[in-house]
Amino acid sequence: MQSKFLIKLCRAAIKAQANSFSPYSGFCVGAALALVGSKRIVTGANVESASYGLTCCAERVALFNAITNGDRNFQAIAIASPGGAMPCGACRQLLAEHAPDAVVVVVDSRKPHRYFETRVADLLPLHFDGSALSKVKSSLRHKT
Ligand SMILES: [Zn+2]
Question: Per the CB 3.0–4.6 Å rule, which of 15, 17, 98, 118 could disulfide with 28?
Fold first, then answer.
């Protein structure tokens, strides 16, 4: 993937950090999703809850934002945070299900010219997916 495009995506993720709601940790994360066949970029930022467990990461906010607007095909996601934190397990699972072929770009928002590039498939190989559930549905149909 062209570095010029990835740098643009990183800039969008860094800009999205401004919308982070993180009064408890102060850890602002932004994510930017690139769609297949479109120049549109869908962004998200982390939203914290006082209960901590209900907090939602920027990657999932961006993904849910895109999905609930009808977007289904993703080619890349950039994730920006201080220090360039990698996606958590929950985000890796959701990305593996909804953007299995996407490029993942992790950027330290304090050093935006340097980024780490990988792929969703490399972040979570052999992931759980809907095929396991369809096998259960299939066996339930045979019992009735
Ligand atoms: Zn996460």
Answer: 17
For residue 61, the CA-to-ligand 1 centroid distance in Å is 9
pTM of the predicted structure, to 2 decimals: 0.92
Q: Is 48 a catalytic residue?
A: no
Question: Each residue of 38-51: b (16+ CB within 10 Å) or e?
Answer: eeebbbbbbbbeee
Q: Mind listing the pLDDT tens digit for each residue in 77-99?
A: 999 999 999 999 999 999 999 99
pLDDT in tens, 45-74: 999 999 999 999 999 999 999 999 999 999
Q: Which residues sit with Cβ closer than 5 angstroms to ligand 1, an ion?
A: 57, 88, 91
Task: Calculate how far, in angstroms, residue 124's C-alpha sits from the geometric centre of ligand 1.
Answer: 13
Domains within the chain, CATH numbers bracketed: 3-143 (3.40.140.10)
Per-residue DSSP letters for 70-94?
T---EEEEEEEETT-PPP-HHHHHH
